[in-house]
Structures are given as C-alpha cells and as structure tokens.
C-alpha cells in the first residue's frame, strides 16, 4: 500500500472497472442463492434422508442466518476493515457452498446453509458501499444501476438456472456453481479493493441481541407459518411474541442510548428513511410476484421448468434495459419523477397481470413482465442513489446493511402474504364456484350433460375445471392487491428531496 491517502472516488478508471466487476460477481453469487436452491428441494429429499416437511429447513436456516447477521455489517466493517470483511465473506461463502454441495445428511446441510447465510449477509451491503465509495457523486446513478441489476436480475434467473442445473447435472451443482464465481471474485477483489481506515467502535451486544431476536423470530414465523397453519399453531404465537418483544425493546434501546451499534442519527435523514419504506415495498413486489409466477405457469399452464424460465426471462431483460437507461437519466431528470414513472409502470404491469386467464397464451405474461422489469428498474436506481445522497459517508455501511435488511424483510413478508392469500382465496373461490355445479344449472347441462346427471367421471372433470378457475381467480386477486400497494406508494415520492451539491465527503482510503 502507498503511504499517500487518496479519495476512493479518485480511483483510476481501470481500477474502478475491476473493482466493479469483482464486487458484482460476489453480489450476484450471493443473491442467486436466495432462489436458486428452491427448485432443487424435491431432489434433495431422498439423498439427504429428509421428509417434505423438514427439507424446508435448507431454506429457513439460510434466510434466518442472513437476516440476523446483516445489521451488524457496519460494526464488523469498522472493527476489522471493509476490505478484510468482504474478502473473508467471499472465502467463507464459497467454502460453505462447497460444503453444501458435499452434504451427506439434512443436519449437515442445515448447518452448512446456516454458515453460508452468516458469511453471505455482509456481501450485498458492502458491495453497495464500495460502489458508492469508488465513484464520484455524479456517477453514483450509474454505479447503483450496475448494483441494482445484480440485485434484481439474480432472483429472476435463479429458479431457471437452478432447474437447469438440477435436471442436467444434479442438485449438488446448485451450490458447486458458486466455486468458480467465488474464486474469480476473490482474486479480483484481493488485487483491486482499496483499504479503508478502521475506527474503534464498542459493540452494543444488548441492542444486537434484541434486533436479532426480532428479525430471527419474524423470519421463522414467515417461513414456518404456511407449514403449521399460521396462528392455529402455538409455535407461531411464540414467534410473534418474541418478534414484537425484540423489535420493541430494540426501538426503546435505540431511542434512549447513545452507544448503540446502529447510530440513530441515520434515521434523521429523510431521504434514507423514505428510501427504507420504498425498498420495503419493492421487496414485496419483486419477490412476491416471482414467488407467484413459476407455480402459476406450472400448475395452470403446464409449463416445464425450462419453459417457465424462458417465459420469465424477458422480465430480466426489461430490468437490464431500464438499469442501463436510468443510470444516465438520473443525472438529467429529477429522481422523484423517475420513481413515480417506475411505480406507474409497475402498477400498469400488475393491472395487466390481473387480466390473466387459463385460456391465454404466453404473450401477456411476457409483456407484463417486461413492463414490470422496466418499472422496477426505474424505481430501484434513483431510489438507491437518492437514499444515500444526503447521508454522511461514515454512515454508508450501516445504512447499506439496513437497506438490505429491510428489502429482505419486505420480500419475506410479501411472499408469505401472497402465499397465504392464494391458499385461502382458492378455498373460498372453490366453495363459491361449486355452488353452481348442480343439475338445475342450464350452463352445466349444456357443457356436460353427464355431469348434470351425476356421472362421477364427468363430475371429476368439472371439479378440475372449478379448481383451475378458483386458483386463477386467487392469482388475479394477489396481483390486484400488489397493484394497490404500488399505487399507494406513489405519494411517498413527495417526501424525497433533492440532494445538495456536497452531501458528505467520501472516505479516505489507501490505494495500491
């Protein structure tokens, strides 16, 4: 390292390019693992000697560990150094991916996934911090476009890539695919990442314990709720009580103490606070819609996994196009205008999705996906830029960890919400539609005289049609709900304010 200190934003263009590529490889690797393993669960059951109920702990352990470890990223970065922490996380995540690919039983897999979640938790917030640090303010929009592309496209291609790997190479390659990516990312980062000066911070163990309790209990409740029928189970009530207790005690602790591991001054920044609300909503819309579409295409349209991925791929194309354009537009157009335009396009796509029917082809699904990708990209980049624009640079790592945590919580809540509504509305719709299946209904007699006369096979066919329509109506209701949530978020854009010309200096780093 040279003895002279220079601003991170003064890094040479080639150095910035290498840092960006290396950091984004690590980010995509981590983000992919939030969805890539989902489709491989059925194949894991036999090899790991697990049941359909217990195999879900492969996902739960990763989600809960990552959620608990994310908020402490800022303290760890200050205590051990951002560069050192990031490199450690890449090595740990890659190594635990190898262990997951070699797992021999369910307990070993859950343990390795737990470690994988702990190591991966800091990768996304640190990558955002690095990209903000190494770029001058006028290029923050383009930097966030690159970062947002990895964050948003990763979950979209995850199920498709996971399905292809599982079908062609086996489920273990869902994890082993991280090895070459992790090695390349590590080599790029170790040769290019600048070292940032460390600063001593005491660790607020009580505050961290309370926040971890709240976040962990919430994630467990959301992940386990559907399996145990929600509030009919004592487990969910216990987790809800622990969640409320943890968040309440942490909030009081944050308000009354100065030496907390998250500086409460962060929440005094209106742009950042509004950005947290927005990213929570984006989390709901992005992953909730991704959670709905694959099973809908499989159950109602009989699409195999590969075709489902191809139908959903244009959504990622729309996002990439939007990211490329908005990275430059954010310098010319008020970010609030871009956010409103993005939310409006997202609402339009959800309105189009509310017109889905089992008799249609894939064109409406593809075009609504492209429009939604364009809309979410228009929101994500200016939001990620403006949320940090008025925040002092010394708060960036803490703020980025909170940004990622709130996005992940929004995703978990959104997925649980639409899944619960889908299940319950399907039952309600089936009950209501079944009332019309009777011998006195002329439409039934015209469609199937045998069913009207009580023929069992004909009635079974009619019941399948009723199930199909009930499920489709439930999907449509979920899309309408997400559309309403998106429309309600538009007025929040008025709370954002334009950043001043100088909103905090970039941190000082030592360049090679």
From TrEMBL:
Gene3D superfamilies: MFS general substrate transporter like domains, Multidrug resistance protein D. Pfam families: MFS_1 (PF07690). The keyword Signal does not apply. The chain crosses the membrane at residues 17-37, 57-77, 84-104, 110-132, 144-165, 171-193, 205-222, 234-251, 272-293, 305-326, 333-353, 365-390, 402-422, 479-496. It is a multi-pass membrane protein. Belongs to the major facilitator superfamily. EmrB family. GO terms for molecular function: transmembrane transporter activity. It is found in: Cell membrane. InterPro entries: EmrB-like, MFS, MFS_dom, MFS_trans_sf, Sugar_transporter_CS. Residues 19-501 form the Major facilitator superfamily (MFS) profile domain. This is EmrB/QacA family drug resistance transporter. PANTHER family: MAJOR FACILITATOR SUPERFAMILY MULTIDRUG TRANSPORTER MFSC (PTHR42718). One of its GO terms (cellular component) is plasma membrane. Keywords: Cell membrane, Membrane, Transmembrane, Transmembrane helix, Transport.
């Amino acid at each position: 390292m040279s003895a002279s200190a220079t601003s991170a934003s003064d890094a040479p263009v080639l150095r910035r390019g290498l840092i960006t590529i290396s950091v984004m490889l690590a980010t995509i690797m981590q983000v992919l693992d939030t969805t890539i393993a989902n489709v491989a669960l059925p194949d894991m059951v036999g090899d790991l000697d697990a049941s359909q109920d217990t195999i879900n702990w492969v996902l739960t352990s990763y989600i809960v560990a990552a959620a608990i470890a994310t908020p402490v990223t800022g303290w760890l970065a200050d205590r051990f150094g951002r560069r050192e922490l990031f490199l450690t996380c890449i090595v740990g995540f890659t190594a635990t991916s190898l262990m997951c690919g070699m797992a021999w039983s369910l307990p070993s897999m859950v343990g390795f996934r737990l470690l994988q979640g702990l190591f991966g938790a800091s990768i996304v917030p640190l990558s955002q911090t690095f990209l903000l640090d190494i770029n001058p303010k006028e290029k923050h929009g383009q930097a966030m476009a690159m970062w947002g592309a990895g964050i948003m496209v990763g979950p979209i291609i995850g199920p498709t890539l996971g399905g292809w790997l599982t079908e062609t190479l086996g489920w273990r390659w869902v994890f082993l695919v991280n090895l070459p990516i992790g090695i390349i990312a590590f080599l790029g980062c170790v040769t290019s990442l600048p070292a940032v000066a460390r600063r001593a911070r005491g660790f607020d163990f009580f505050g961290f314990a309370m926040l971890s309790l709240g976040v962990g209990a919430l994630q467990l409740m959301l992940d386990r709720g559907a399996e145990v029928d929600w509030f009919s189970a004592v487990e969910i009530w216990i987790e809800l009580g622990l969640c409320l207790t943890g968040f309440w005690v942490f909030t009081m602790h944050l308000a009354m103490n100065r030496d907390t591991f998250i500086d409460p001054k962060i929440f005094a920044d209106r742009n950042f606070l509004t950005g947290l609300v927005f990213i929570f909503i984006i989390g709901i819309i992005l992953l909730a819609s991704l959670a709905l579409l694959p099973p809908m295409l499989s159950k109602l349209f009989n699409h195999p996994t590969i075709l489902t991925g191809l139908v959903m791929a244009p959504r990622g194309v729309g996002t990439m196009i939007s990211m490329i354009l908005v990275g430059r537009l954010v310098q010319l157009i008020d970010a609030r205008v871009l956010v409103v335009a993005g939310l409006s396009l997202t609402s339009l796509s959800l309105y189009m999705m509310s017109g889905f029917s089992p008799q249609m082809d894939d064109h409406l699904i593809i075009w609504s996906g492209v429009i939604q990708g364009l809309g979410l990209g228009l929101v994500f980049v200016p939001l990620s830029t403006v949320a940090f624009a008025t925040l002092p640079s010394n708060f960036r790592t803490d703020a980025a960890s909170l940004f990622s945590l709130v996005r992940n919580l929004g995703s978990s809540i959104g997925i649980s919400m639409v899944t619960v509504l889908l299940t319950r509305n399907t039952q309600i719709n089936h009950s209501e539609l079944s009332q019309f299946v009777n011998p006195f209904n002329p439409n039934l007699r015209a469609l199937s005289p045998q069913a009207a006369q009580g023929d069992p096979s004909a009635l079974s066919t009619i019941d399948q049609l009723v199930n199909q329509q009930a499920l489709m109506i439930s999907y449509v209701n979920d899309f309408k709900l997400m559309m309403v949530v998106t429309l309600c978020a538009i007025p929040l854009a008025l709370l954002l304010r334009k950043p001043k010309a100088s909103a905090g200096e970039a941190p000082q780093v030592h360049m090679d």
